[in-house]
């Protein structure tokens, strides 16, 4: 065994340790988020309810204020008043998982710090894995999974850093990331190794890295859509005079208003749609170099296309009367389902060129894309 | 704000005013209920056209398209893998004919799939043309004047100032123009609009989709694709007759083939030597020399797996490889009747290969009669050793090559007129050579070894020099450049369409009853975005600096409420953020 190979194995070892450590820290973060939600349930926020129950007091529309402090005439600058569009419920956003509870907020902050730490560990794990194989870390399902979940958390932390209202996502995200990593280290684990020649191309790097990024953003968007659907039916129920269960009330009251969730989901999905378009085109260019045709209706290509058309359908639906709101949201979930199937389903159930053992060109099996 | 409902309140008075302000913020087709048309062919035709070019039908067609694409990914397709289709037919004798009728073995060229996308693209064209005209009209026109009550808009602000109304309007006009709004004064207010690029991007995106589709269809019609297996040292010139197999689009003619020729000098393959992925290929490359045209200069090139050789419109891809042992066959008198490299087809990842050696001419059997010889050949580049009990190769490189031959003589029926595979032997008129036990005569040979056929029938030598062959695919697909250009425009247009916000801003300045100027500003965007109020605030600050606030006329009040609306939720007059709906 050469010296280089030995260092590489060491690096692969380090990568594994880092991934396991990240999982441990994610687990701590998970419990901290749980604590945040539990402590938050103590406070009885019911802004949505008070906004929507028929008996609720008519709220004052925020009005233009020109303040005057005594006679010294210190004039305030003009304030922009924003009002809800007609037909839209004017519901305030929930306070977040901690529900305004101070201790809950503290645990939430701890959870986020832990998430940052876990992300750093996982990122190190992905990086050392990449170094150990001297290539990008997505040669097989294991590597794809660890890279994907790390990217998803990265997207979440980035949104947080940009001061977007996404803190409520924490618990859902860490839960699924833990599941994803668990799956990766148990079922999908593959010893580090290099790529077969068909995978050597810089278009691959572009194609797969944008695919992973798109997936991570779509993932976050799908969460927004899902929460929108829950919150929207909650608000509908309240508006119609219904009485949602206490658990639903406790959880949903703390989420942003359905209109905000809907907007969040739309922005996230719309922002990444051009990148997804680019990903497919980069894939076509790569296929053109590798296989002699840029589009061949291979199952992976077909499902990328279906995903693309489904997201285009979602964007259209939002501009089409009778399709806005819930129906468009279902389309967005469907579109994300297509993305998931493209990644897991096609790799597992359908055989095609992306998982081929072609005559002479050897196995390109177990490749994410 | 998201608008989960459409405002369908009948337009009256003030409402109409607001409606005009929000109108034409986009060129999306108007939503119409699918009412049945008045009688008459023209009426029906118009109705049908309206339906086809409506957003609702476009959306349904999009969903149908994605639905229709699914079966092609689950059912074997003739265009992708014919043998799988054949297997499927063998296994499902009830389903297969039904699938055939439905075109499910070639979904993407089936009538129904074509119908979906052709309808979608007709709808798209029917949508783009009027939208483009409408947009040109909007560019020629000017932003609509301010609605009567700016406080009804999704974002607004107001303050009182000592500045004259004209001064305020001039300042606002100046500022908005500097900010690249299209602005003009209408009555007592400045009307401004920005973000037309959004619409341009959206139209370009949809047009680019059409360009891509046409480029793709063009490519399919004029495409050609041929395969050729070439042993090291041999050559190829790009004419139809030289291909092992050849496919082309419906409009392709033989003259379309780019003239060139090339020789394969050497093929190199290396493989992972250890670890869990032992045996997976690491490099594949082929050194070639080629000439463009009938008599161009000879150049050399290296063709790798992801790096095709491009000659004019043609691309030469390296797609497969295998071994071609050199075999010499002598007759009973020792005369060489056959000496050639025999390309064998790989059966597995370790290049266990099989094929046939056919001696068609020149052989006479010990009785002096003309006969043909045939040998079934089985080759492994790395033999597991006779103790391993397997004849399967252990590694793809030439570590321990062994050739196994079994021998036949008789008539290969090569002259029957039916094209024969070079990798298969028609044994119907062939007799086995027998060994001492009366069984089929066969032998394992190491490089350099010779096996002697029974009864002085001759000998076969497995030469030491084992050649490799490379399989090439030559593809010509015109329209690629157009498709790429379309793709680039599509992405740029899409980004413009999704990231640019088209919005209007109005600034009204009028003298209040007490002689102090009241400034009102409002913003309206087409799609949901927090940017409209943000931008409005920024603009307001800047105008405020040039028209500073005046004290409130009623000093007792701490706060003055603007027009008090307590009925926001049911306010029929408010303009939804996506005002475009209200036409
Ligand atoms: C080939 C199929 C089509 C695809 C992939 C597609 C895709 C898209 C996408 C991604 C958007 C951006 C959404 C946005 O700006 O919010 C869009 C917008 C739009 N599309 Fe299409 N489209 C297709 C066909 C059509 C057809 C047939 C029509 C005509 C009925 C149409 C009309 C529109 C309009 C009016 C918009 C702008 C909507 C708005 O103002 O928000 N599209 N399309």
Description of the molecule:
Chain B: One of its GO terms (biological process) is cytochrome complex assembly. Chain B: Residues 55-536 form the ResB-like domain. Chain B: InterPro entries: Cyt_c_bgen_Ccs1/CcsB/ResB, ResB-like_domain. Chain B: This is Cytochrome c biogenesis protein. Chain B: Keywords: Cytochrome c-type biogenesis, Membrane, Transmembrane, Transmembrane helix. Chain A: This is C-type cytochrome biogenesis protein CcsB. With 369 residues, chain A is an all-alpha fold. Chain A has one domain. Chain A is 64% helix and 2% strand. Chain A has ten helices and three strands, in the order ααβααααααααββ. Chain A has helices spanning 3-40, 47-52, 102-133, 141-161, 170-186, 202-239, 246-253, 258-291, 299-317, 326-349; strands at 81-82, 357-358, 362-363. The longest helix of chain A has 38 residues, at 3-40. The model of chain A is unreliable at 55-74 and 355-369 (pLDDT under 50). Chain B has 583 residues and is of the alpha+beta class. Chain B is 28% helix and 28% strand. Chain B contains ten helices and 22 strands. In chain B, strands 4, 6, 10, 11, 12, 19 and 20 form a seven-stranded antiparallel β-sheet that branches. In chain B, strands 13, 14, 15, 16, 17 and 18 form a six-stranded antiparallel β-sheet that branches. Chain B is elongated, with a radius of gyration of 39 Å. At the A-B interface, β1, α8, α9, α10 and β2 of A face α3, β1, β8, β11 and β13 of B. Bound molecules: protoporphyrin IX containing FE (HEM).
């Amino acid at each position: 065994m050469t010296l280089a190979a030995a260092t590489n194995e060491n690096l692969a070892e380090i990568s594994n340790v880092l991934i396991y450590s990240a999982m441990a820290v994610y687990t701590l973060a998970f419990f901290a988020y749980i604590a945040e939600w539990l402590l938050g349930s103590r406070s009885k926020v019911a802004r949505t309810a008070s906004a929507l129950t028929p008996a609720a007091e008519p709220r004052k529309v925020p009005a233009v204020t020109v303040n005057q402090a005594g006679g010294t005439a210190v004039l305030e600058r003009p304030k922009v008043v924003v009002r809800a569009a007609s037909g839209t419920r004017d519901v305030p956003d929930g306070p977040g998982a901690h529900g305004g509870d101070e201790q809950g907020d503290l645990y939430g902050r701890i959870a986020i710090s832990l998430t940052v730490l876990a992300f750093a560990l996982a990122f190190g794990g992905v990086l050392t894995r990449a170094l150990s194989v001297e290539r990008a870390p997505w040669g097989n399902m294991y590597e794809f999974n660890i890279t994907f979940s790390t990217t998803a958390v990265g997207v979440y932390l980035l949104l947080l850093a940009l001061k977007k209202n996404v803190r409520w996502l924490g618990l859902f995200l860490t839960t699924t990331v833990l599941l994803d990593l668990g799956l990766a280290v148990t079922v999908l684990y593959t010893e580090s190794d290099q790529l077969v020649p068909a995978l050597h191309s810089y278009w691959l790097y572009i194609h797969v890295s944008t695919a992973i990024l798109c997936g991570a953003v779509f993932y976050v968007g799908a969460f927004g859509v899902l929460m929108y659907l829950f919150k929207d039916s909650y608000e509908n129920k309240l508006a119609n005079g219904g009485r949602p269960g206490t658990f639903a009330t406790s959880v949903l009251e703390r989420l942003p208003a359905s209109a905000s969730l809907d907007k969040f989901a739309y922005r996230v999905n719309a922002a990444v749609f051009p990148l997804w378009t680019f990903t497919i085109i980069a894939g076509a260019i790569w296929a053109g170099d590798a296989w002699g045709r840029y589009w061949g209706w291979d199952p992976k290509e077909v499902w990328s296309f279906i995903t693309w058309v489904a997201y285009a359908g979602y964007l259209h639906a939002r501009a089409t009367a009778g399709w806005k709101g819930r129906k468009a949201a279902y389309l967005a979930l469907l579109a994300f389902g297509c993305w998931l199937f493209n990644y897991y389903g096609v790799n597992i159930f359908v055989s095609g060129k992306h998982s081929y053992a072609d005559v002479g060109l050897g196995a390109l099996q177990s490749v994410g894309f | 704000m998201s608008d989960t409902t459409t405002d369908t309140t009948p337009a009256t008075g003030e409402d109409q005013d607001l409606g005009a302000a929000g109108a034409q913020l986009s060129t999306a087709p108007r939503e119409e209920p699918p009412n049945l048309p008045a009688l008459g062919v023209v009426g029906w035709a118009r109705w049908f056209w309206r339906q086809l070019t409506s957003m609702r039908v476009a959306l349904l067609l999009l969903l149908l398209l994605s639905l229709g694409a699914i079966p092609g990914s689950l059912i074997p397709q003739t265009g992708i893998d014919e043998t799988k289709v054949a297997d499927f037919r063998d296994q499902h004798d009830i389903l297969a004919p039904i699938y055939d009728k439905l075109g499910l073995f070639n979904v993407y060229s089936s009538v129904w799939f074509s119908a979906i996308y052709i309808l979608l693209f007709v709808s798209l064209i029917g949508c783009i043309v009027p939208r483009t005209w409408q947009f040109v009209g909007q560019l020629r026109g000017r932003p609509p004047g301010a609605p009567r009550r700016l406080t009804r808009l999704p974002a607004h602000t107001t303050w009182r100032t000592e500045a004259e109304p004209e001064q305020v309007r001039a300042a606002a006009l100046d500022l908005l123009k500097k900010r690249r709004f299209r602005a003009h004064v209408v009555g007592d207010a400045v009307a401004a609009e920005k973000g037309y690029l959004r619409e341009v991007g959206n139209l370009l995106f949809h047009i680019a989709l059409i360009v891509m589709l046409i480029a793709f269809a063009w490519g399919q019609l004029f495409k050609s694709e041929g395969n050729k297996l070439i042993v090291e040292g041999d050559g190829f010139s790009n004419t139809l007759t030289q291909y092992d197999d050849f496919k082309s689009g419906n409009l392709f003619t033989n003259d379309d083939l780019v003239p060139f020729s090339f020789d394969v000098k050497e093929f190199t393959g290396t493989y992972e030597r250890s670890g869990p992925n032992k045996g997976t290929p690491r490099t594949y490359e082929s050194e070639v020399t080629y000439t463009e045209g009938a008599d161009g200069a000879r150049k050399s090139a290296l063709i790798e797996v992801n790096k095709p050789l491009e000659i004019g419109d043609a691309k030469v891809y390296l797609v497969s490889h295998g071994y071609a042992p050199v075999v010499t066959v002598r007759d009973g008198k020792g005369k060489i009747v056959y000496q050639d490299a025999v390309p064998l087809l790989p059966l597995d990842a370790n290049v266990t290969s099989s094929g046939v050696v056919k001696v068609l001419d020149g052989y006479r059997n010990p009785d002096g009669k003309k006969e043909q010889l045939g040998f079934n050949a089985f080759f492994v580049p790395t033999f597991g050793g006779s103790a391993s009990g397997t004849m399967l190769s252990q590694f793809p490189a030439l570590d321990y090559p062994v050739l196994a031959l079994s021998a036949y003589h008789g008539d290969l029926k090569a002259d029957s007129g039916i094209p024969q595979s070079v990798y298969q032997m028609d044994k119907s008129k062939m007799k086995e050579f027998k060994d001492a036990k009366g069984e089929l005569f066969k032998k394992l040979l190491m490089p350099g070894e010779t096996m002697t056929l029974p009864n002085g029938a001759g000998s076969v030598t497995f030469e030491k020099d084992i050649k490799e062959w490379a399989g090439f695919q030559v593809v010509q697909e015109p329209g690629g450049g157009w498709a790429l250009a379309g793709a680039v425009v599509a992405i740029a247009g899409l980004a413009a369409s999704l990231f640019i916000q088209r919005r209007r801003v109005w600034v009204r300045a009028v003298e209040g009853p007490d002689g102090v100027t009241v400034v009102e500003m409002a913003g309206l965007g087409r799609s949901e975005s927090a940017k409209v109020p943000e931008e409005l605030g920024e603009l307001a600050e800047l105008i405020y600096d040039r028209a500073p606030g005046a004290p409130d006329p009623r000093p007792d009040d701490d706060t003055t409420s603007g027009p008090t609306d307590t009925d926001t939720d049911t306010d029929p007059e408010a303009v939804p953020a996506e005002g475009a709906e209200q036409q």
